[in-house]
Amino acid sequence: MAKMSAACIVLPSLFIFIFIFFVSTTCCSQEERSIYLVLLRGDPIAFHEDSQNEDSSRIHVSRKALIKAHEKHLLAYHDMLLQTTLENGSYNKLHSFKYIINGFSVHTTPSQAKKLRGTPGVKLVEKDRGVKMMTTYTPEFLHLPKGIWAQEGGEENAGDGIVIGVIDSGINPHHPSFAYQSFKSNLSHFSGACETGPNFPPGSCNGKIVSAKYFSAGAEAMATLNASVDFLSPFDADGHGSHVASIAAGNAGVPVVVNGFFYGRASGMAPRARIAVYKAIYPSVGTLADVVAAIDQAVLDGVDIISLSVGPNEPTEDTLTFLNMFDISLLFARKAGVFVVQAAGNKGPTSSTVVSFSPWSVGVAACNTNRRYRASILLLNGQIVDGVGLSGPSFGNGTVFHKLVLAKDAVKTNGTFPNTPEYIEECQHPEALDPTKVFGSVIICNFSEGFSNGTSTLDAIIATAKALRFEGFILTANPNYGDYIAEPIPFAISSILIPSVADSKAILKYYEEWTKRDENGTVKEFGAAAAIGEGRVASFKGRSPVVSRFSSRGPDFIDTKRSPADVLKPDILAPGHQIWGAWSPNSALQPMLTGHSFALLSGTSMAAPHVAGIAALIKQHNPSWTPSMIASAISTTSTKYDNLGDPMMAEGFEVNTLHPSTPFEYGAGIVNPNRAIRPGLVLSSDYEDFISFLCSLPNIDASTITTAIGENCSSSFDYPSNLNLPSVTISALKGSICVKRSVMNVGNNTETYLGSVLSPNGTTVNLNPTWFTISPLGTQDLEIQINVTQPMEDFSFGEIVLTGSLDHIVRITLSVVPVSA
């Protein structure tokens, strides 16, 4: 009896134990996994003491062997830390970061990530925010052929010897913009490799493309990849990466032909620079883990410049904007001597929307050029209405009139489809329209609910037009939704976009006057007619540059509360509106561009590689210059005036309206590459200066810097604005401040400079000394005394201009909020 009792007691206990174990493991498994980026204590390879020594006094082995040994040590440490901290089966390590940062990315649950946060040796654990793409005539617009290119021996030598690392969606290796040509210089400083895979066969790295790698662990952890578009190779199935690479360093003089029409010849900014490809974003998904791994690898390979047209679309929630994993990786890339260019973001015209925060990277805003593609429609009554389009004329070269039909007047009367805008007004479904009414006609489609919420597309209109054999189509604005924003897109059929409500009303007024209806409103006779004109021929008129509406604005900010930072962002302005560039015929995310080898795109994605290519030209001309010197030269030689000699303007919220722009829209101004190679003076900052800047941030806990960067705040500036940038930004000036700057003469001759000041409203600014003579490689300290004379509610702007006796002009932008003491 006793034995039976014991058995009865043991069995329920065992059952309870199994039940509890099952419940606990089930609950754990029900936690949704995410990717976390983990930063660890300890030096990465690039900054490890033994790795930097050419010869070790303790062990006589090569530097390469020392690097390999430290790499092996870091990998083992990463694995050991995960194995001893997290539950078995609860995680999957994705990447080990080892060259410029020591850490890893891991796919795990929030509860496991919490364990990592409390583990000795762990400095930072940050949830992956994902990344997005920030989505030629510009060499002539920037005066390169007769400027830097000519000075470097012409387009056949411009950028030779420089490697630009493009971190994006990959590259189309079959494109003529990346075809092999013989190069004069070798790349002894570069050691990248070439990975192959689907659509990226051996030989894709051809000398122009010198390296190609892909990073997919993060993408594969976060989504089920689509094998038809998410190729596990460096191949670009989207087109974005190819477009970016061609702007920076595409071959010169490549014919741009789309739909059989020749649009001119495209050239990259540095057509002889080499391209290293790091694919880190896929049509289905992009992760920060893959991008950080790509940055780490690019610096290890030895790139000179990193071009980033992808990145986090929002600041991190729980750390300073400067101290997230992404910006820390850029800081260490800068420490390793790499010039980093970032797209500023596409969230304009709202203020404080920049996603390039840190003073160690160059954030690029976007503007237009003076090239315009004008399209128009001619009505039978002689009226001409301008619009947007990139298509050929309707039959008869735009002089033969075709019946004009409003889509809702051509809807089948006996159809069983829904009575919704996409069927009735928006031309999305060919089965909704009467073929006898639309055949050979110009159809008026309406920008209605589906276009407003993103469910309707131009692709669908084109499919409908082809299926029913429209002569052409017009997409008119809808008064209920207001004007819409239209960009010229290469349409295979005659078409025109009318984004203005006023212009659309004029077309519809004419249509109704010439259309006869019965008492029920049904059309008895279509009497209106129209011809669509040629829309593919460019004109070169009008005001430029103008800051683009979509381009993200400053001021820069420190945290998610949008507390302003004493750093000018964006840094610089470059062309990013309607830019031709290489494309991938797969065009995974843009069906309308499928089969095309070129695309006309807009975005700060297009602006950033302009500056990357220009930086390559500057580096070629001045090979000893540091990234800070290049950044300074680009900023201080820019201009704030347009081609009409007026202060630069910017697009705002209202369509077709402009307003005076500020440095929070254009940074230092529009980039001027021909002056940037010989700036006269530069303002330089080193890695230690960036640490001092961080340590001087308001209300900063020094331990935060030590934890994130691994550096002690042994010295800090009196104010963050004392960082030696080619601009001065003060977000809350009380009373008076003395800001310091130091300039160095990078010219070949002694030069005398005279300083002048345009003080921001509400301040007086005194410069000391007001003039100085400086010899080659000499330095001069400047004191800038800024005093509040009247409190202001917002930033006001001014500048210091240093004019040299040898015609150098150095501009330092001032941005100040004077407040009451």
From TrEMBL:
Pfam family, one: Peptidase_S8
Places the protein is found: Secreted
Stated name of the protein: Subtilisin-like protease SBT2.4
Active-site residue list: D168, H240, S605
Family, similarity comment: Belongs to the peptidase S8 family.
Main location, first listed in the record: secreted
Endpoints of the signal sequence: 1-28
InterPro entries linked: Peptidase_S8/S53_dom, Peptidase_S8/S53_dom_sf, Peptidase_S8_Asp-AS, Peptidase_S8_His-AS, Peptidase_S8_Ser-AS, Peptidase_S8_subtilisin-rel, Peptidases_S8_3, S8pro/Inhibitor_I9
Domain Subtilisin-like protease fibronectin type-III: 722-816
GO molecular function: serine-type endopeptidase activity
Inhibitor I9 domain segment(s): 70-133
Record organism: Cicer arietinum (Chickpea)
Residues covered by the Peptidase S8/S53 domain: 159-642
GO CC, alphabetical: extracellular region
Keywords, ordered alphabetically: Glycoprotein, Hydrolase, Protease, Secreted, Serine protease, Signal
